[in-house]
Amino acid sequence: MSRKVVALLLLIMFVVSSNAYAADSKIAVYLDGNELTFDTPPIITDGTTLVPLRKIFETLGSQIQWDNTTRTVTATKGDILITYKIGEKNGYKNGKSVTLEVPGVISNGSTLVPLRFVSEALGALVAWNGETKRIDITHHENVTAEVKATETSYIPSINRLNGSQVGSVYVDGNWIYYTHPMDERKIYKMKLDGSMNTKIGDKVSTNHLIVDKDWIYFSTFEVIGHPRDFNLSPENGVYKMKTDGSGLQKLLSGTSIGAMSLTGETIYYTKQFDTSNVNMVKTDGTGNQLAYKNVWNYQVVGDTLYYNQESRLPVDFYEMKLDGTNKRKLMRNISPRYQVINNSLFYTDGSYLMERLINEPEKEPTKIIELNTYNLVVVDEHTVIFQKKNDNKLYKVDLISKNVTLLHESAVQSFDVAGDFIKVTFANPITFSWINWKTKDIVEFR
Length: 446
Prior knowledge:
InterPro entries: Cu_amine_oxidase-like_N, LRP1-like_beta_prop, Mao_N_sf, SrfA-induced_signal
Protein name: Copper amine oxidase-like N-terminal domain-containing protein
Largest sheet: 5 strands, antiparallel
Helix content: under 10%
Oligomer: single chain
CATH class of the domain at 153-293: Mainly Beta
Domain Copper amine oxidase-like N-terminal: 31-136
Domain Prolow-density lipoprotein receptor-related protein 1-like beta-propeller: 160-220, 231-422
Distance between the termini: 81 Å
Number of strands: 43
Keywords: Signal
């Protein structure tokens, strides 16, 4: 083939490629009604829109790490972990494979990924208008209640790794909902900046707060008379009320709750004196029934139930779908004080914080750091809040740098973590306050 023919073919390929990119540059992408701008314009391959990797991940609120050697992106947002290797037809969300319509590509120095895969994996909805070449992405928080109801899943802000009460604080949007330890554990709410602190409920001894679609779900556990007599109030049970305190309804009567979580329109719970069986009831109070037998220390993540099957130490660790299918034993001989975040199982025996990968259960656990405590909360893959055994003070540790920071000089009686905030009851004297664990600032009520 002559040089002229080769040059002509290359020119034709360049023109076709340029025209394709020019046509695709007309695609408009909107997030919650606001148009996004890209340094490299979106392209369409086999009917699938691809957009610059970093821009779409970060715009949707995730943090990313890029491995240039393997051409792999790792993105985290809350309890979502996404991994994807450019060029492959499968990505992974929380360790589970997701098939892509087309693989991601590296073009003209830019890394592009399928917009729909990224958006939907991060909990958003995607709509395409072929006539106007407009794509609308809607954040999960802004979709209709019907869609949200099928996808929401509550993970208690304080759970297996902390010996304290489960669920006495909950962050939802710009509000913190909490049980007030100095006012009979009635329900209050306040803005994230500490303003508008208001009591919204008169039920006492509340716990297991869950906020979903303008409703607060909670339990009560009141002891009548001297605690050693342990006479429980007949008013104990599961309730719901509006986030403004109105519309109080009792969903379950005469039931003392040990643990509680919400997925969609179903509340899962254990009874205080029957923690080996998980029950379920609808959010309207109907359909109360036994859901799972011989399930200890359960945690619901998405459509999956994680649990132990015995209370003796050490324990075996299982998972199964909420519909009872795909049950399997993942690991043997771990502590029952555990917490599932993304694809990792964190647990402790009181000495070391350990981590095991759920999608690779055959691998040996990793010793992350020696903390010598039972009372700790894994906030995310990078941060742990814990109470030292020797001084009962509150600390945070960066799991990457291993730096340990004292959060307050006073000894702590109990603490609960939600978002950036720690609800703290100090021991001597007994006082109550909030600490922002990122800044160490005390949040004052106004």
